[in-house]
Amino acid sequence: MYDYLQNKLLPDKMNYIFLDEIQHVHDFEKVVDSLFIKDNVDLYLTGSNAYFLSGEIATLLTGRYVQLNMLPLSFKEFVEWHKQNDLFTDRADMFNKYLQSSFPYTLFTSDDLERMEYLRGIYSTIVLTDIVTRLEVHDVPVLERVIRTLFSDIGSPISIKKLPILYKVIITRQITKRLIVT
Protein backbone atom coordinates (compact mmCIF):
# COMPACT_ATOMS: atom_id res chain seq x y z
CA MET A 1 0.00 0.00 0.00
CA TYR A 2 2.85 2.38 0.80
CA ASP A 3 4.40 1.96 -2.67
CA TYR A 4 1.03 2.54 -4.31
CA LEU A 5 0.40 5.74 -2.35
CA GLN A 6 3.98 6.95 -2.75
CA ASN A 7 3.64 6.67 -6.55
CA LYS A 8 0.44 8.76 -6.47
CA LEU A 9 1.87 11.63 -4.42
CA LEU A 10 2.47 14.92 -6.20
CA PRO A 11 5.78 16.30 -4.92
CA ASP A 12 4.99 20.03 -5.33
CA LYS A 13 1.44 19.96 -4.00
CA MET A 14 -0.45 19.12 -0.83
CA ASN A 15 -1.77 15.57 -1.04
CA TYR A 16 -4.95 14.70 0.81
CA ILE A 17 -5.23 11.01 1.57
CA PHE A 18 -8.39 9.43 2.97
CA LEU A 19 -8.09 5.84 4.18
CA ASP A 20 -11.40 4.29 5.18
CA GLU A 21 -11.66 1.20 7.42
CA ILE A 22 -7.88 1.14 7.45
CA GLN A 23 -7.73 -1.25 10.42
CA HIS A 24 -8.47 -4.10 7.97
CA VAL A 25 -5.16 -3.58 6.15
CA HIS A 26 -2.31 -5.67 7.52
CA ASP A 27 0.45 -3.50 9.07
CA PHE A 28 -1.35 -0.28 8.12
CA GLU A 29 0.36 1.40 11.07
CA LYS A 30 3.71 1.39 9.27
CA VAL A 31 2.18 3.00 6.19
CA VAL A 32 0.41 5.62 8.27
CA ASP A 33 3.56 6.31 10.24
CA SER A 34 5.61 6.86 7.09
CA LEU A 35 2.99 9.16 5.57
CA PHE A 36 2.69 11.27 8.72
CA ILE A 37 6.27 12.47 8.43
CA LYS A 38 5.76 13.91 4.93
CA ASP A 39 5.21 17.67 4.82
CA ASN A 40 3.01 17.47 1.73
CA VAL A 41 0.57 14.85 3.07
CA ASP A 42 -2.64 15.55 4.96
CA LEU A 43 -3.87 12.16 6.12
CA TYR A 44 -7.38 11.18 7.27
CA LEU A 45 -8.17 7.79 8.76
CA THR A 46 -11.57 6.34 9.47
CA GLY A 47 -12.46 3.03 10.91
CA SER A 48 -14.05 0.82 13.44
CA ASN A 49 -14.93 2.08 16.89
CA ALA A 50 -13.57 -1.12 18.40
CA TYR A 51 -10.09 -0.57 17.01
CA PHE A 52 -9.77 3.19 17.11
CA LEU A 53 -11.26 3.58 20.57
CA SER A 54 -9.19 0.75 21.98
CA GLY A 55 -6.18 2.97 22.58
CA GLU A 56 -3.97 0.94 20.26
CA ILE A 57 -4.04 3.57 17.53
CA ALA A 58 -3.37 6.29 20.10
CA THR A 59 -0.23 4.49 21.21
CA LEU A 60 0.98 4.08 17.64
CA LEU A 61 0.33 7.69 16.65
CA THR A 62 1.05 9.49 19.91
CA GLY A 63 1.07 13.25 19.48
CA ARG A 64 0.39 13.12 15.74
CA TYR A 65 -3.35 12.84 15.42
CA VAL A 66 -6.64 14.44 16.30
CA GLN A 67 -9.48 12.07 17.08
CA LEU A 68 -12.99 13.12 16.09
CA ASN A 69 -15.79 11.02 17.50
CA MET A 70 -18.95 10.95 15.42
CA LEU A 71 -21.82 10.89 17.88
CA PRO A 72 -25.59 11.00 17.59
CA LEU A 73 -27.22 14.38 18.05
CA SER A 74 -28.03 15.63 21.51
CA PHE A 75 -31.71 16.43 22.09
CA LYS A 76 -30.85 20.13 22.01
CA GLU A 77 -29.14 19.76 18.59
CA PHE A 78 -32.05 17.67 17.33
CA VAL A 79 -34.58 20.36 18.32
CA GLU A 80 -32.41 23.18 16.94
CA TRP A 81 -32.13 21.43 13.56
CA HIS A 82 -35.91 21.00 13.40
CA LYS A 83 -36.43 24.66 14.30
CA GLN A 84 -33.92 25.82 11.65
CA ASN A 85 -35.72 23.75 9.03
CA ASP A 86 -39.25 24.79 10.08
CA LEU A 87 -40.06 21.24 11.18
CA PHE A 88 -40.46 21.87 14.89
CA THR A 89 -43.80 20.79 16.32
CA ASP A 90 -43.72 20.65 20.11
CA ARG A 91 -41.19 19.34 22.62
CA ALA A 92 -43.12 16.14 23.38
CA ASP A 93 -43.38 15.25 19.69
CA MET A 94 -39.72 16.14 19.16
CA PHE A 95 -38.73 13.93 22.07
CA ASN A 96 -40.68 10.97 20.66
CA LYS A 97 -39.01 11.47 17.26
CA TYR A 98 -35.65 11.83 18.97
CA LEU A 99 -36.14 8.46 20.69
CA GLN A 100 -36.71 6.84 17.29
CA SER A 101 -33.28 8.00 16.13
CA SER A 102 -30.83 10.77 16.89
CA PHE A 103 -28.38 9.94 14.10
CA PRO A 104 -27.97 12.89 11.73
CA TYR A 105 -28.57 10.86 8.55
CA THR A 106 -32.06 9.93 9.70
CA LEU A 107 -33.06 13.61 9.67
CA PHE A 108 -33.01 13.38 5.88
CA THR A 109 -35.15 10.27 5.62
CA SER A 110 -38.90 10.50 5.50
CA ASP A 111 -39.40 6.81 4.93
CA ASP A 112 -39.62 4.66 8.10
CA LEU A 113 -38.32 1.62 6.21
CA GLU A 114 -35.20 3.48 5.04
CA ARG A 115 -34.63 4.80 8.57
CA MET A 116 -34.92 1.29 10.06
CA GLU A 117 -32.55 -0.18 7.46
CA TYR A 118 -30.00 2.51 8.29
CA LEU A 119 -30.30 1.83 12.03
CA ARG A 120 -30.03 -1.95 11.46
CA GLY A 121 -26.87 -1.28 9.46
CA ILE A 122 -25.34 0.68 12.33
CA TYR A 123 -26.29 -2.06 14.79
CA SER A 124 -24.83 -4.76 12.55
CA THR A 125 -21.63 -2.85 11.99
CA ILE A 126 -21.04 -2.08 15.65
CA VAL A 127 -22.30 -5.27 17.25
CA LEU A 128 -21.86 -7.98 14.67
CA THR A 129 -18.67 -6.70 13.12
CA ASP A 130 -16.77 -4.58 15.65
CA ILE A 131 -17.68 -6.18 18.98
CA VAL A 132 -17.86 -9.80 17.84
CA THR A 133 -14.59 -9.58 15.92
CA ARG A 134 -12.66 -7.48 18.43
CA LEU A 135 -13.73 -9.43 21.51
CA GLU A 136 -13.79 -12.79 19.71
CA VAL A 137 -17.35 -13.48 20.81
CA HIS A 138 -18.20 -17.07 19.92
CA ASP A 139 -21.87 -17.12 20.86
CA VAL A 140 -23.43 -14.21 19.00
CA PRO A 141 -27.05 -15.16 19.82
CA VAL A 142 -26.27 -14.92 23.55
CA LEU A 143 -24.62 -11.53 23.03
CA GLU A 144 -27.70 -10.36 21.12
CA ARG A 145 -29.98 -11.55 23.94
CA VAL A 146 -27.91 -9.55 26.43
CA ILE A 147 -28.10 -6.48 24.18
CA ARG A 148 -31.88 -6.84 23.75
CA THR A 149 -32.25 -7.11 27.52
CA LEU A 150 -30.11 -4.02 28.06
CA PHE A 151 -32.01 -2.10 25.36
CA SER A 152 -35.33 -3.01 26.93
CA ASP A 153 -34.15 -1.49 30.20
CA ILE A 154 -32.77 1.80 28.88
CA GLY A 155 -32.91 4.51 31.50
CA SER A 156 -32.57 2.13 34.42
CA PRO A 157 -29.40 1.55 36.39
CA ILE A 158 -27.59 -1.51 35.08
CA SER A 159 -25.36 -3.90 36.93
CA ILE A 160 -23.97 -7.32 36.17
CA LYS A 161 -26.00 -8.67 39.07
CA LYS A 162 -29.15 -7.63 37.24
CA LEU A 163 -28.49 -10.11 34.43
CA PRO A 164 -26.99 -13.08 36.27
CA ILE A 165 -28.33 -15.87 34.09
CA LEU A 166 -27.24 -14.31 30.79
CA TYR A 167 -23.82 -13.38 32.10
CA LYS A 168 -23.35 -16.82 33.61
CA VAL A 169 -24.15 -18.43 30.27
CA ILE A 170 -21.74 -16.15 28.40
CA ILE A 171 -18.90 -16.61 30.88
CA THR A 172 -19.41 -20.38 31.12
CA ARG A 173 -19.47 -20.80 27.35
CA GLN A 174 -16.40 -18.61 26.80
CA ILE A 175 -14.41 -20.38 29.52
CA THR A 176 -15.48 -23.79 28.20
CA LYS A 177 -14.51 -22.89 24.62
CA ARG A 178 -11.15 -21.47 25.72
CA LEU A 179 -10.40 -24.61 27.72
CA ILE A 180 -11.31 -26.83 24.77
CA VAL A 181 -9.23 -24.76 22.33
CA THR A 182 -6.12 -24.62 24.52
Radius of gyration: 21 Å
What is the spatial order of strands in the main beta sheet?
1-2
Q: Work out the helix count.
A: 9
Overall geometry: extended
Share of helix among residues? 40-55%
The total of beta strands comes to 2
Report the portion of residues in β strands.
5-15%
Report the structural category: mainly alpha
What is the average per-residue confidence, as pLDDT, rounded to a whole number? 79
Distance from N terminus to C terminus (CA atoms, Å) equals 35 Å
- Report the biggest beta sheet as strand number plus sense, adding barrel if it closes: 2 strands, parallel
Order of helices and strands: HEHEHHHHHHH
pLDDT under 50 segments (min length 5)? none
Account of the protein in words:
- It is a single chain.
- Helices cover 55% and strands 5% of the residues.
- The chain is mainly alpha-helical.
- The chain has a two-stranded parallel sheet with strand order 1-2.
- Helix 5 (75-84) packs across helix 6 (91-100).
- The protein starts with a helix and ends with a helix.
- The model has no long low-confidence stretch (mean pLDDT 79).
